[in-house]
Amino acid sequence: MIQSNRFQQYLDRYVGIPLCGMLSLFRRRDSVSYTPKKILFIQLSALGDTILAVPTIRAIRQAFPDAELTMLASPTNLNYLANCPYIDKQLSFRMPMYRLFAVLRREQFDWAIDLEHWPRLSALLAYMSGAPVRIGFQTKGQYRHFLFTETVQHVQGRHEVRNFLDLATRLGCSTQELTLETWCGAAARTWVREVLVQEQVAPDVPFVVLHPEAGRRGEPRRRWLQESYVALADALIARYGVQLVLTGAPNEVHLSEAIAARTQQRAVVLAGQTDVNQLAALFSDAVLVVSGNCGPMHLAAATGTPVIGLHGPTNAAQWGPWSRDASIVRAALPCSPCLNLGFEYGCQALPDGTSPCMHTIKVATVLQECDRFLASDRLSIISS
Q1: Please, what is the average pLDDT of the chain?
Q2: Residue 185 CB: number of other CB atoms within 10 A?
Q3: CB-based burial of residue 59 (10 Å sphere; 0-12 exposed, 13-18 middle, 19+ buried)?
Q4: What is the dihedral of CA 153, 73, 39, 99, to 10 degrees?
Q5: Percent with pLDDT over 70 in the chain
Q6: Fewest CB atoms within 10 Å of the CB: 173, 200, 276, 277?
Q7: Mean of the pLDDT values across residues 342-365?
Q8: Residues with Cβ < 8 Å from 229, sequence gap 6 or more?
């Protein structure tokens, strides 16, 4: 999977950049002064980016209530948006490319809004849609903006929620509402209640969720150490008497099971068992979520549950959890952070796959942040 990601990045850069430049010669510039009837959003893969773009999507929905809004995204993103009241139609990025091009042209979009930061493919899809107005980020060094009719400067080190909102501002929308949202639905909430009973999670004892994996599949350099999660789990149980639930994607089950096998008290492993909305419902019922920087960290923040984000390579100012009930623990190396877009790692992974900076995050520091959310008076209110 790492090789596949690198090949895709290589193809996107060394084929995509010349292609964007060539096609820009045929670019037609239309005004955004008219009211659109059909708007296309493009966010191909990153769940976290889609979650952080919700305030922007909501602002555009409110500004153009009669327009039809379509989201082109991966199945996971579309599942997250399944109950979103701001999106009218969905298009899966997983369909064959020739068919996708045909569908985009047939829809006759007025506007195409590219929510990606660096891939050239999304800019090409916006262009191929035939939308006369195409808006997206001008990101330093990515050379993807040639195909847009309107561009917004992507600001490094600025939180992505605010970067996204600049797109809505460029379109004349009010951007006063900054909150994230989830719409997990009744079925997902029922599933969580039933599985917690099945796993013998006591309903009168608060539980904490640990999400040990972080980042793209097959790329563990954002992950905190296994032994650190084990030590944190034992400390949380000893200090607060909470129950522990471990989550993750299907390919991350082994990691959660390895941690659970080493804890002094029982930990429930739900990794590989939840879809994105079931995970949101589970996070909603937890008293705290601890996670590295990844889509589920942003999902936890969107539910309103307190979340602690562990940041090593990633720029916490840009990608930290967007919530008032959130805390960030940063690595203690001068070269950290090195990630602003998500792929520009400054060092090679260690033999265990993690980055050197993640080794500098101490259990005691994370536990101190947990104290903010798990104080006895706060837990007593939650339990009552």
Answers
A1: 91
A2: 15
A3: buried
A4: 120
A5: 88
A6: 200
A7: 93
A8: 210, 212, 259
